């Protein structure tokens, strides 16, 4: 039973006992207040976030130190702390969304008693240089500003051993090639119909679904 396993793994201690409980926790967090089109500030769906985080938990990828690159309101990083991460860096260039992330972290502490350390860094991801066990991120897809996703991947490969990263499903060939060039490989692909809610003025549909995959990438042994 996966739920019982989650509760009994003392070396990878979770503060929530199931994927469903994690999704409920994440769904209660505050999202973007005034999302910016140019940097593609779209909230990660809580159910999808919980699925990916639970996969990372079951694979024992949640190590001592992690980073949520381009964290926004902090859903992914907070999910890591709820699943027993010891330390998570939250990195974003937008000071306002970092304040939302801090508020969400306070909510986690009050509801879940997570003892992990959260470090909030107001900076561009290019300026983050701490070495971590795990990188988790939902970067811009490079639709508004080309190659933004490449910059995120490049940084993730520099600082991390294992990377979970969301991209359009059609980007798989690019991911395979770019990973290989940076001594990483794709080990798992989790496919989703990603709901983009109408948060921008130009959106004509309440929810538009696009094919998005979360790629698990691992550094190759030298």
Describe the structure.
- The chain has 222 residues and is α/β, with parallel strands linked by helices.
- 35% of the residues lie in helices and 25% in strands.
- Helix 2 packs antiparallel against helix 3 (46-58).
- The chain starts with a helix and ends with a strand.
Task: Classify the oligomer.
Answer: single chain
How many distinct helices? 7
Structural class designation: alpha/beta
Query: Strand tally, please?
Result: 7
State the helicity in percent bands.
Answer: 25-40%
Strand order across the biggest sheet? 3-2-1-4-5-7-6
Uncertain parts: 1-11
Main sheet specs? 7 strands, mixed
Radius of gyration: 16 Å
Euclidean distance between termini CA atoms? 36 Å
Shape: globular
In percent terms, what proportion of residues is strand? 15-25%
Order of helices and strands: HHHEHEHEEHEHEE
Instruction: Name the average pLDDT.
Output: 84
Brief digest:
With 222 residues, the protein is an alpha/beta fold.
Keywords for this structure?
222 residues; 7-stranded mixed beta sheet; globular; disordered N terminus
Mind sketching the topology for me?
Elements: H1 2-8, H2 19-27, H3 46-58, E1 65-69, H4 75-82, E2 87-92, H5 95-112, E3 117-122, E4 134-137, H6 148-159, E5 162-168, H7 172-181, E6 184-197, E7 207-219
